[in-house]
């Protein structure tokens, strides 16, 4: 008998342990640990001018340094006479103010050797592979066997190019329009022979500037936006800028843990770039309308690669070499992608003059383009700016014997928090609930069909919706936790080109990327199920910023974009986190806006290009202000960039997030950070409430660290990042403060 009892006890313990893997115990119902204090609002930090800020513009008049070659052919177009070289497809034209734009460099600039002179003149650089995967390069002037057939049409040059060395041929078309030039390379025109196309570079020296010969800058959509000002070559710069649009293409990455991949700074979420020759005088804004999902943005810096030029241009990738594991010991071989990526190239180069010839004018031009695609700016009747108030309902962590569930904030507790803020005078609140299923925040993905009963019921959700401007529920349908269900690890996981699974190692769990078919199915089922709770607004994580291919289902990045767009066309209100440009249409809220660039040593300025371009289309919210290291400086940046405040709050202590993917949240307990929320919000709102329905007209740096933003409703907001008071038109703008003049 005793042995039987022992066996029964042991079996019971095993049974309980098995159950614990699926049904976590609840902890933290009464635990109330202290929170880390937030940085004091009144703490004064020293202002140090750097590329974290925008610099004072050099308004020197740009001189014409280009002379049009007498040997060029000429075609009359709507933008005037365009001069072109039939052998290289280089072009030049005279701007309406007399400035000459050229796709190559003039003879008065720094000298180039014969090889670089050909490359600088050529409209295209072609990279191609032989059957062994060895890469070669040629341009339009490399081989005497290259043949270019040109047809002049009304406002167009249509070219068919046969590259003499590779034997690759394609169409390359220039269309001249009233506001600029459009470039087109149709995918169907590309023909290969013994050699295979790798990538194509388009007009690499259009607008190139030798050293500091021309005042102005290159604009890059790195993070929120960055500038590289034209200057003489420096010895401390060793590499040029090269970054893929929409983040690194992880389809080609050989890694067992995708979290180990270095991000290399901020991403390029917009497929645009530009260059200015004479600030407020002459500029070109480039918008990649097609092909950006396979595009790379390049900036050559003066002094690198034995060049004394600064220039910006795109590369388009049709094929790549990739690393293929062949055994369990990690041995790999390099293979060449079989099928080329299928996409058309289309770039629109828009000419900007006078007051629009700057990064603000470029942002306005991009906003006009977005409106032409069907996006509409929304006017609002609100009198105060919105506050994004996130919360976490449940989170799960792996214990020694039992999985532990932390009940962080019930719906009723969230209601109490919101009512407290309303009593403090914060009325315009948008809510966002993370971790609303029984599996908690980290282990829910990708299944979001039920709301955890421990959080509350449908009546509580309806009460929350009545208190809030909008209420989003956070989901993730592209990543799947191995602690969750609703998918098959055999048939639903996406694969890289080397047929590896995309794996993310998280605290106590793993996540995998899903096929697009499964993502769409999960979204549709989830939206239908959650509608029974009255939930009609979803904040979808990962989907907005993560773009990858699935070779298990022959799904390309282009296919992913098309499929993701179908989600955004749904009836639900959709919010995305740091979304890429291809998902802007039908977007209702933009979360986690980046307020900085990568701040590489080669950058001179950070500029709010994205926030200027997207202003008025949907609300743009900052990352959570809980984690501002220098609160006053960050709040001034929100005022400067016209970005709304965001906080994440919980009823219980954030210490319960330890050893979970949310452990970065070191301060979220509402009773601890309520004073900061009230103070921060009122500080930002007192400025931005004056320009809720207004558009930015100009942004001028008066002196290092002092910026004036002028809006079309007559309001000026002057931001002073420095440690000294600043006098502006009879008003004193205090140090580390702002002023509003109307």
The share of residues in helices is 10-25%
Number of strands: 43
Beta-strand residue percentage:
25-35%
Low-confidence stretches: 8-34
Shape: globular
* Radius of gyration (Å): 28 Å
Question: Whole-Å distance between the termini?
Answer: 90 Å
CATH class of the domain at 73-372 reads: Mainly Beta
User: What's the assembly state of these chains?
Assistant: single chain
Largest sheet: 10 strands, antiparallel
List the total number of helices: 11
Q: Which CATH architecture of the domain at 73-372 is right?
A: Distorted Sandwich
Compute the average pLDDT.
91
Spatial strand sequence of the major β-sheet: 8-9-10-11-23-18-17-14-15-35
SS-based class = alpha+beta
Question: What is the CATH topology of the domain at 73-372?
Answer: Beta-galactosidase, Chain A, domain 5
Helices and strands, with pairings:
Elements: H1 2-22, E1 25-27, E2 73-77, E3 80-84, E4 91-94, E5 100-102, H2 114-121, E6 124-129, E7 135-139, E8 147-153, E9 156-162, E10 169-177, E11 180-185, E12 196-202, E13 209-210, E14 216-220, E15 226-229, E16 241-244, E17 272-277, E18 282-290, E19 295-300, E20 309-317, E21 321-325, E22 332-336, E23 345-353, H3 359-372, E24 387-392, E25 394-398, E26 403-407, H4 411-423, E27 429-434, H5 440-443, H6 458-467, E28 470-475, E29 479-481, E30 503-506, E31 509-513, H7 516-531, E32 537-540, H8 557-568, E33 573-577, E34 589-593, E35 605-606, H9 609-614, E36 620-622, H10 631-641, E37 646-649, H11 670-688, E38 696-703, E39 706-711, E40 716-720, E41 726-728, E42 731-733, E43 737-741
Parallel strand pairs: 1-26, 24-27, 24-37, 27-28, 28-32, 32-33, 33-34, 34-36
Antiparallel strand pairs: 2-3, 3-4, 4-5, 6-7, 6-12, 8-9, 9-10, 10-11, 11-23, 12-20, 13-20, 14-15, 14-17, 15-35, 16-19, 17-18, 18-23, 19-20, 21-22, 25-26, 29-31, 30-31, 38-39, 39-40, 40-43, 41-42
